[in-house]
Amino acid sequence: MFCPNCGTKNENDAAFCLNCGTSLAEENISTSTEQTKEVVDSTIPVALDTTVDPATPVSPVAPVAPVAPTEAFTTYTAPVTPTPQYKPRKPLSKKLIAIIAGAAVIVIAVSVFIVVGKKSADYETLATKYFIAEQAGEWDKVFDSIDIPSGEFLTKDFLKKAQSKTATKEISNYSVNKKSDIYASPISGDKDLVDDAISKDVYIDYRIKGESSNRTDTIGAIKLKEKNLLFFDKYKISSDDLVKTGFSIVVTKGAKVSLDGVEVSSKYLKDSAAASSSSYTVSKDTYVIDYLFKGNYTIKVTQENMEDNETDVVVSSNDDSYTYTSPKLGTKIISQLATTGQDAMKTVFDSVIARKDFSTLSSLFVNDTKIQSEAKSTYVYFMDGQITTAGVGLTKISWTSLTGTAAQKSSASDGMTAVTVTVKGAYSATLKSAYSTTPSDRTGTITCYFYYRYQNAAWSLYDMDLSRIY
Q1: Contact at 8 Å (CB) between 451 and 418?
Q2: Quick one: pLDDT at residue 2?
Q3: What would the DSSP string read from start to end of 385-406?
Q4: Which UniProt keywords apply (predicted)?
Q5: Where does 243-324 sit in CATH, by number?
Q6: Once rounded to an integer, what is the mean pLDDT over residues 305-325?
Q7: CA angle in degrees (0–180, nearest 5) for 36-41-44
Q8: How far apart are the first and last CA of the chain?
Q9: By C-alpha distance, which of 303, 392, 298, 322 is closest to 353?
């Protein structure tokens, strides 16, 4: 039987629909009536063939008593309680989903926040990572771990270059040694430097492959003023073992200095000091770099008229300075000074023969009171010995040949670059004797020395040695 309301199939004698609970009584009555009708119909005799043969006598048919129709009835069935049907839940709203998702994100963010914050405050882990990176030569990681002052030469590239020749160490094993294991009782009267409010010392024992005993590195961790993520302590590794404080480069005055290709600017130039043994103008320049990574560098010194000089130096805890005050002259300057010396020799002898005052020669010498005074004394003494005021002595000279050879001195008396020009001259000369009215002719060779220095953008004499002709 099918429910007239929802169409659900039920038992034929069901009083109510199992699905929707609709009463099925009328449906049962209708069904019973139909069944009764079928029974009655089945009891009515089927009409027989009544065709009569005219020759056959017909017997009267006895009347059939009518059959009373079967009374329809309804069978009662106890009501059945319908089975509850599952109703799908109402889906969550987008707003509620967004709230749940946001809460999950907040929980994850807080967890990450706490993990990252605690990690930044774990100075032992930081020191261990620094140790591993340093031993392996991973200088990018080392640079990111250290606490360094600001400085033009304290960059990651400078650290990598400075440490490029540092041999890496192959570590067999290592372990962090707790401070209490080593410093159970600090020295009496001394502050316990192992652990204080702003610094922590981490001791790492390690064994290098091929060695028979352990080594220990002390790595200092410094707690910074700023907080990580506003709440957590932040540590960096002390750069004391990597940074040199106050490295000086001393060069001749006016020289330019570069460090690994980067010019050391004039802001690093400190007050230059004159040599104590001389009153000459200041001869040296000193550049002081406040902070510099320890390690290997190439220092280049350039100066006008000088050959460029490049030197590989090692900056360490025991190396406070580099000095280069003897630059090598270029071959062109050497050749020019050789010729300049030859010209000076001719000028001096011509002035002597004419008994000219020193003022006619003063421009050849360095413009310095002491140098000018000494040069004048040398000139007058030579002139008086070569020819008298009465005209006795050298009266005429011609040079058949002059050969000048210039050589750089290792240093001048005040540390400035100096050049000695040796001039050899072959001459023909006429001398007048005090005992004869007839002049005499002489030939021969002499050697004189002229000393030059570069000052005030020019090469000038600061001394000379002259040889007399007799």
Answers
A1: yes
A2: 80
A3: HHB-TTS-EEEEEEEEEEEEEE
A4: Membrane, Transmembrane, Transmembrane helix
A5: 2.60.40.3070
A6: 91
A7: 135
A8: 161
A9: 392
Q: HSE, CB side, 13 Å, CA atoms: give it for residue 138.
A: 10
- Which of 371, 368, 390 is closest to 379 using CA atoms? 371
Is the distance from CB of 413 to CB of 370 less than 8 angstroms?
no
Of 414, 413, 369, the residue nearest 273 (C-alpha)? 414
Integer CA distances (angstroms), 5 to 15, 27, 29, 79, in order: 14, 11, 17, 17
Q: Would 243-324 and 331-465 be classified into the same CATH topology? A: no
Dihedrals φ, ψ of 414, to 5°?
-110, 10
Q: Which long-range contacts (CB under 8 A, 24 or more apart) does 309-318 make?
A: 315/162, 315/244, 315/247, 316/244, 317/244
Task: Look at residues 84, 71, 73 and name the one whose alpha carbon lies nearest to residue 25.
Answer: 73
**Maximum Cα–Cα distance across the chain:** 223
Q: Which residue has the tokens 């008593």?
A: 65
d(CA 223, CA 238): 10
Read off the pLDDT of residues 275-295 as tens digits, 9 standing for 90 and up: 444 444 447 899 999 999 999
Q: The dihedral of CA 345, 351, 357, 359: what is its sign? A: negative
The helix/strand count (H/E) of the chain reads as 8, 17
Amino acid letter, residue 162: A
Tokens (6 digits) for 444: 């021969």
Tens of pLDDT, residue by residue over 148-169, are 988 899 999 999 999 998 888 8
CB 294 within 8 A of CB 242: yes
In whole angstroms, give the CA distance from residue 62 to residue 355: 200
> Where in the chain are the domains?
1-45+66-84, 120-185+192-238, 243-324, 331-465
CATH class label, 120-185+192-238: alpha beta
Residues paired with residue 124 on neighbouring β-strands, in sequence order: none
Where is pLDDT greater, at 121 or 191? 121
The first and second tokens of residue 19, run together, are 């699905």
Quote the pLDDT of residue 345. Answer: 98
Kindly write down the DSSP assignment for every residue of 414-445, as one continuous string.
TS--EEEEEEEEEEEEEEE-TT-SS-EEEEEE
Rounded to whole angstroms, what are the CA distances from 159 to 152, 273, 311? 12, 32, 19
Hey, which of 55-69, 85-99, 340-354 has the most confident mean pLDDT?
340-354
Is 45 in contact with 64 (CB distance < 8 Å)? yes
